[in-house]
Design a protein that fits this description.
Radius of gyration: 23 Å
Order of helices and strands: HEEEEHEHHEEEEEEEEEEEEEEHEE
Bound molecules: 2-acetamido-2-deoxy-beta-D-glucopyranose
Shape: globular
Length: about 500
């Protein structure tokens, strides 16, 4: 009976344009010279675009988890207003539930796994789990895509990663080249065969909730422990756990992304980031065509990142909570990356918020320091200048594995945890970063100190040291991935919990 009424009621669907923020120009309390680089400026768009991806230690799939499909899924919907047909007044449901969500990606599509065809898939990807996931992401992107200027965009991306590595299986390449079996090696956790598995991924599709049906809410959640009983959430057992729950009042404010990440004995090294990735090309650490949120790729030095971060639980002493984690790619000669895994180098820059993270760059041992520090006034100080170099401002620097002219002493970055060689520069709260709006003291912005950050990421990232061959033309630093979230590093039973709201990236408008 009720069903019949519903179908009458839903005959006329009007797109609720007012609920969708169309304007990408941010005018409030900002100069008109800045525009948003992300499709969903400030996370204010009711009709959410969100996806999730999961990576193994070298940013691949490796093996799918039974019944889960390929580890790429999305929650993308549009909102329509249900209104009675003209002359019909008996649409009682329309009054009590005036909006409907139409999901653009259905469960069957989210569960697609290797071997199952979808529109546009290549023959090669049908039998290769890694290529399959990459093409599935592109396919999901086509369902979620929003037309916009200067470019269409697809979704925010939740990234999951486990640091487990089976060194004897030689699954991950060594600086982009085929690896040989080795180990066991204490650098890489592994409980035995199958330790690099993908997590369980469960999905509560976004629905309208609350007393007035005006609260949009949904979640992705799961565990890497395949025998985990998730009915009790993370509290019932000592298994790993993650959840991302998003909610928003219809037509008001920002989405609130609430994240939980818990490590276990079998999975002690886990990551969960909220990413804004490029909408095409490669993104940080991803060597396949990507889909994302960045309708404009921010380029140093002219961009800012704004968001509100509330850290509720930190993830323990070895949690590297990244206030900002950004990825780019250029070759050591300064040329842009082209997909050649032996000469492309992923460049990561990270600000670690956890006050317990020590500096490993020391005045009497500077092998883990960048070659020089540049002050905002342009003054450059070599790391051997013990009177002036700010050692405490750096957690560590490691050089690309394929760089030929790195000054001694140096430490090369882990050759396995990225599909190609990588370079990592990690900074800590310190007065030298104050000029860019970054934390200047340990503990700032940490638990109990929720903050809205307005970070001059562009100018800071322009000033940071990154390796290039002597005499080469400096690379233009284009950041195809701007993320935040924790990397809990090799510590079981640790919990991190945090919320992110109002995320935005602002770039100087080009006339
Ligand atoms: C629900 O609607 C009633 C009546 O309009 C209003 O008083 C109340 O505050 C609303 N509640 C929520 C949670 O929006
Ligand atoms: C998913 O939905 C179920 C049923 O409404 C609920 O019990 C559970 O708490 C939700 N899980 C998450 C992580 O939001
Ligand atoms: C979980 O681990 C903690 C610390 O290792 C231990 O004290 C507790 O008993 C364990 N709980 C369960 C349910 O195994
Ligand atoms: C990749 O780069 C390396 C180092 O520059 C070069 O030797 C090799 O020929 C390149 N491979 C391809 C396929 O271009
Ligand atoms: C630049 O800044 C550094 C650090 O504040 C300071 O020591 C130095 O004197 C400044 N140089 C000039 C030329 O102003
Ligand atoms: C510091 O290193 C630079 C570059 O290698 C070198 O020219 C300079 O002499 C060194 N200074 C000291 C004090 O060791």
């Amino acid at each position: 009976m009720a069903r019949r009424k519903v179908s009458v009621c839903y005959i006329v669907l009007t797109l609720v344009v007012v609920l969708v923020s169309q304007s990408s120009v941010v005018s409030v309390s900002l100069s008109n010279e800045y525009v948003s680089a992300v499709g969903d400026s400030g996370m204010r768009r009711d009709a959410l675009r969100l996806a999730i991806e999961s990576w193994n230690q070298c940013n691949e799939v490796g093996e799918e988890t039974p019944n889960m499909g390929s580890p790429r899924a999305a929650d993308c919907f549009d909102i329509y207003k249900a209104s009675p047909q003209q002359g019909q007044n008996e649409c009682s449901l329309c009054k009590s539930m005036p909006y409907i969500l139409v999901h653009r990606v259905i469960e069957k599509e989210n569960r697609l796994g290797v071997g199952q065809p979808f529109e546009g898939i290549s023959q090669e990807a049908l039998t290769n789990v890694n290529l399959y996931a990459a093409e599935k992401e592109v396919y999901l992107g086509s369902k979620c895509q929003v037309e916009d200027k200067p470019k269409p965009w697809q979704f925010w991306m939740i990234m999951l990663k486990s640091g487990n590595m089976d060194t004897k299986a030689a699954i991950c390449p060594n600086n982009g080249q085929k690896a040989s079996p080795f180990g066991p090696d204490t650098r890489f956790p592994c409980f035995g065969k199958g330790c690099m598995n993908q997590p369980l991924i469960y999905h509560n599709y976004t629905t309208l909730q609350g007393p007035n049906q005006t609260m949009l809410k949904g979640s992705f959640y799961g565990s890497w422990d395949l025998d985990a009983d998730l009915r009790k959430g993370m509290f019932g057992s000592n298994t790993s756990y993650y959840s991302v729950t998003w909610e928003k009042q219809l037509g008001k404010g920002s989405w609130i992304f609430h994240h939980v990440l818990k490590t276990s004995v079998k999975y002690p090294w886990l990551m969960l980031y909220l990413r804004s990735d490029a909408t095409a090309g490669f993104s940080g650490g991803y060597h396949y065509p990507t889909r994302g949120m960045l309708k404009i790729i921010p380029e140093s030095p002219d961009f800012k990142v704004r968001f509100t971060l509330n850290v509720i639980k930190g993830g323990g002493p070895s949690s590297q909570f990244y206030l900002m984690d950004m990825g780019s790619c250029w070759k050591n000669n300064g040329q842009p990356c082209d997909g050649n895994e032996t000469s492309d180098v992923t460049r990561y820059s990270e600000m670690i918020l956890n006050p317990e993270t020590p500096s490993w760059c020391h005045v009497d041992d500077f092998k883990l320091c960048p070659l020089y520090h540049t002050f905002p006034n342009g003054t450059r100080v070599h790391r051997n200048d013990t009177a002036r170099f700010p050692y405490e401002a750096y957690h560590l620097y490691c050089a690309p594995g394929n760089a030929e002219y790195v000054e001694e002493p140096n430490v090369r970055c882990d050759p396995y945890s990225n599909p190609q060689p990588q370079e990592i520069l990690q900074i800590l709260p310190h007065p030298v970063w104050g000029d860019y709006g970054y934390p200047t003291r340990k503990g700032e912005g940490w638990i109990g100190d929720s903050r809205t950050w307005n970070l001059d990421v562009g100018r800071l990232s322009q000033s940071l040291y990154f390796y290039q061959d002597p005499g080469s033309v400096p690379a233009s630093r284009k950041w195809t991935s701007i993320d935040l979230g924790p990397e809990i590093y090799k510590a079981p039973n640790q919990v991190a919990e945090w919320t992110v709201t109002d995320f935005n990236i602002l770039v100087a408008r080009k006339y």
